[in-house]
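Continuing the batch. This is chain 6 of the set; chains 1 through 5 are on the previous pages. Same settings as before, nothing changed between runs. Recording input and output for traceability.
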Amino acid sequence: MTWQPAARPPGVARAARATVDARAQALRMPLVWPQPPPAAVPRAMRAAVHAAQQGRGGAFVLAASRLAFCGGFDLDDPEVLAEAAAAAGLALDPALAAAGDPAYDLGIARAGQALAARGVDAMPVVRSDRRCSLRRAPRRRRRRIALHRLRAARRFDSERQRSCNLASMAAETTTETKLHGGRLVAKRLKAHGVRKLFTLSGGHLFSIYDGCRAEGIDLVDTRHESAAAFAAEGWAKVTREPGVAALTAGPGVTNGMSALASAQQNGSPVVVLGGRAPALRWGQGSLQEVDHLPFVAPLTKSARTPASTAEIPPLVDEALVTAMSAPTGPTFVDFPLDYVFMELDAEPPSDARLPDPLAAPAAEGVEAAIALLRGAKRPVIMAGTGLYWAWAEVALRELIAELRIPVFTNGQARGCVPADDELAFSRARSTALRGADVALVVGVPMDFRLGFGAAFGEDTKIVLVDRAQTDRPPPRTPDVTLYGGIAATLRALGGGALDTGAWVAHLRAVETDRRESERAELADDRSPLHPMRLYHDLQEVIDRDAIIIGDGGDFVSYAGRVIDSYEPGCWLDPGPFGCLGAGPGYALAAKLARPDKQVVLLLGDGAFGFSAMEFDTLARHGVNVVGVMGNNGIWALEKHPMEFLYGYSVAAELRPETPYHEVVQALGGHGELVRAPDELKPALARAFAAGRPALVNVLTDPSVIYPRRANLA
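Output for chain 6:
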C-alpha cells in the first residue's frame, strides 16, 4: 500500500507528530487522525476498520496523557474511556490515568488487542505528551461530547460486529499462533526447569505474568521486592536450581539490590527479571524510567536489556546459563515495556542448556597437591559454599573416608558431611586449622571467616580447590591452586589412607571437651532465657532433615555454633554479606521447594523488623514456616562491642518485650510468647501443629554477650 501521511489534528506538538508518523510509516499501517467535530469520530473508526478488513494492515492507536484514540474512540475523560472499555468486555481503571500508571497504557493496549481480535491485525501503542483531542471546553460540555462519542462508537461496534465474523475468526486463528514478549520469557524459563517466579505486582511485568500463567509457572507474590529477590536466592540455595525473581521498573529493581549483592557474595545462581520503561519513549520521562544496568552490573555476572522482542529469548537463555556457570552468581535482564508486549510469530529455536557441574573435568596440576597430602601428618579439609554449588558432597565424603582426613564446613557446605560423621568436626576448628600441616580449602574464600588466611598456621601448606578463579585474589597465597570440577578434582586426590589416627583422636578430644563446656549454658534455667537454652530445647523437637534459616546477629551466631546439620541444603543464612531481613524470603522458598520438611526461621527481634510483613505472604500462600525469635530488646551485635570500646552505646536499643507474636497473629498466623524455659517446648509443639505460619516470641537475656572471636574487618 502506498503511504499517505494523514492529516494532522490540531494541538499535537511537532515532535510528537513526527514520531507518530514515522512509526506508523515504518509499520506500514494506515494512520487515522480523529478530526473535530465529534461527528468525524465514527467516520475515522469506519476508515480504520475498513482498511483492516481490506487487508491493508492494522489501525494505529495513539494514546495521550489522558486520551486514547483506540479504533475510533477519541475520549479525554478517563471515566468515559473506562466505560467504553467495559462495553467491549475490558477493564480500565480511570484512577490509573491520573496516577500516570503504566497499567493505563496497558489497558489501552488491551483495548487494541480486543479490536484486533475483531478484524484489526495489529495495534501498537504510542504515547504523546500533548493532547490530540478537541480544544478545551467546559467540563460539562466535554462530558456530553464524550458520551455522544461513546454512544456513536457503541452503535458502530454493533454494526461492525455483524459484518466482521469471518474476519474475526481469521484474526483469532492468527492471534493464537503469535507469542508476545512475556510469553517468550516464560517459555525459556520453563524450558530450563523454572517452576516458581517470585515477584511483587507491577504494571511493567503484566506481560511476563500472562506468559507464566499460560506456561504453568507459579507466581509467588510478596509484600516487598527485597523478599521476592531473597526468595529467589532461597530457592537456589535449597534446590541448586536457578532462582528467578521479577521486579518492576525503577524502585522495584532498586528494592532488590541488597538481595542481588547477597547472591553475588554467596555465589547463588539467581536471575532477576526487571521491568523497564518503554524504549520508544526512552529519555522523555516515563513513569519509573531509570537505566538499571549501571548500578546493577557491579553486583551481577551479566546485566542486559534486549533491543527488540526477538532478542528476548536468547537473553533469557544467556541469563540462566551464565548464572549457573562456574563461578555461579546472579544475572539480570530488564525488558522495555513496548518490546515485552510486542509479538513474534513463533519462538526462535534454542540449543541453550544449563551446565552440569558434575561433568566438569578435574583441575590440572593435582600431582602437586597429592604430593603434599602424601607427606601430611596433620591434614585438614575446610569446605564451603562452592563445594555445595558444585554438587561435590559425595566426592568429599568419599575422599575423607578414604584418606581419613578431618573435615570442617561453613556456609552452604554445612550438612554436606553429616554432623555425626566420625570425621566431621565443628568446635575444634581453631585447633585444627592452626595445627594442620596441610589444609585443603575447598570452595570457600579466605575472608573474615577464616581470618583472611590467618586462621591457618604460619607453616600450614594450603591447597586451594575451586570451580573457577574469581576477580578477587586470596589474601593469603596458596601453595597449590586447583581450578576445575570440584567433584572430579577431589576424586583425583584419592589414593589410600593417610596415617592420621593420632591427629583425628586429638581433635576428637578437643571437640568433646568443648561440647562438654557448653552444657551449663544449654541447661541454663534463667528467665529471660539464655539463647543456648533455647537452642538446646529446639534441637530436641526438630527433625534431622529440618531446614534451618538464620536471620539475625548474635542470636543466630549462637545457632551457627550449636545447631547441627545432617543433609545438604538444610542450613541457610545470609552469608558474608550479612544482610538482615533475608530470612522470610528464604523460608518462603524453602517450604515451597521442600513442603514435606520442617522449615524453622530463627529471627532476632531486630531482624524481624526488616521483613515482618512477609508473614502475611506466608499466610496467604499457606506456607507453614515456624519462626523462633530471640527477643532481647537490643541490637546486641552492636551494643556489646560498642560498650566494650567506648563504655557506652547509642542507637542500639529496641523496645523491651515487644509482642511481635501478636503482629503475626494479626497477619493470619499463629503466635506464642515464651518468658520461661519450661514454656518453650509446649509452645514449639503448638507452633509446629498449628498448620499455618507461626512465631514463637522468646524473651532472651540482653546481658548475654556472644563470645565473638572473628575479626570482621
